[in-house]
Amino acid sequence: MGPWVLRARTGPGAGELVGSGGCSLYTSGTTTVWNTAFVLRPQAWGQGYAQEVTAAGRRCAHALHPDLPVIAVVAAGNPRSRRAVERTGLRTVCRGPDAKDPDPTAELLLYADRGLSEDQVRALTA
Ligand SMILES: CC(C)(COP(=O)(O)OP(=O)(O)OC[C@H]1O[C@@H](n2cnc3c(N)ncnc32)[C@H](O)[C@@H]1OP(=O)(O)O)[C@@H](O)C(=O)NCCC(=O)NCCS
Fold it and tell me: Looking at the DSSP assignment, which residues form a beta bridge with residue 6?
């Protein structure tokens, strides 16, 4: 299962692209998780679409592999994304440097729906 394309179902913009998101299988080393991600067109912000697609993604993830953790990785400096992820009910597992950001002060937050082992955290933040 991968991310889904979101289109408005009703209203004046019915059928128009809203964004994409959901839960996708992600493997790093021996760790496999359901990764939650979403990106919406700015005009679609503030309507709960990220919540809707995450809830649908988690229902499918749970039906397919309930044994796998559901996670999200978010830039600490992106408060809107953090709020959206926290609203889905995921909890912060760890916070650390963002190795891919040229800004040495940039940090990433790892969220999950359950506790993760040290090996899982290392694999997901490498
Ligand atoms: C991150 C991002 C998806 C969040 O979008 P969003 O619309 O704020 O997300 P949500 O689905 O959580 O919407 C919640 C907002 O909708 C409102 N809302 C309206 N109807 C709602 C409903 N039926 N259910 C839930 N929330 C609803 C909430 O009150 C809240 O508004 P507020 O932010 O003014 O408090 C969006 O900002 C984005 O695409 N950013 C760029 C990409 C990005 O950073 N992605 C994250 C990587 S994981």
Answer: 19
Mutate to test the pocket of ligand 1, among 80, 82, 101 (most ligand atoms within 8 A of CB): 80
Q: Is the pTM of this model over 0.70?
A: yes
Which atom of ligand 1 lies at the shortest distance from residue 37's CA?
48
84: CA distance to ligand 1 center in Å? 5
What residue ranges do the domains of the chain occupy? 4-125
CB 22 within 8 A of CB 115: no
pLDDT of amino acid 126: 79
**48 Cβ inside 6 Å of ligand 1:** yes
For 55-94, write each residue's pLDDT tens digit. Answer: 999 999 999 999 999 999 999 999 999 999 999 999 999 9
| pLDDT more than 90, % of the chain | 95
Q: Which class is 4-125 in CATH? A: alpha beta
